[in-house]
Amino acid sequence: MYIGSLLVLGGVVLLFFFCPVQIRVSKNSTEYADHTFQSVDVHELEIAYEKILSITTTAGPAERLPPFLGTVDARQLATGLNLISNPDHRRDTLQYQGNRQTMATAALQAHYSLLDRSRPLAAGATFILLFTGAIIFLLPSVEVFLMVVKQSVAFKTPV
Fold it and tell me: Rounded distance, CA 45 to CA 11, Å?
C-alpha cells in the first residue's frame, strides 16, 4: 500500500506540474470558453489565436484542420479566428453576448483541444502512475473479497 500511495502521489505531482491550468480548472472545452467570456480575459484570446495559427496550414483553417481537433467546425473556427485576430475587437468579442461569442467559441474549443494534447508523455506517465497506484491499492480489497467468497461457498456446501 505504501508503494501504491507513492505512485499516486507521483501521478498527482506530474499532473500539477505538467497539466495546463486551463485543463485542470475546466471540465471541458465549453466550460473553458464560458469562463474566458465571463472573466473577459483578452490575454487568453490572444494566446488562443497564436496557438491555433501555429497549427493551421497556409491554406487557412477552413481548408485543413488537424484530426485531433475533433468536432470543431472549420468554418466557425475560421470566423472565430477572424473575430479575435484584431486586438481592438477582442474585448468586444468577449463582452457582447450573441453571434460574436458563438463564433469565437469554436476558436476557444480548438485551443482547449490543443492544450489537452500539448504534453502527451507527461499525460501518459501520469495515467500510468495513477492507474498502477490504484491497482496496488485495490489488491488487499480483492484478497479480502476472495476470502469472503471462499468462506461463504464453503459454508453453504453440504457435507
Answer: 30
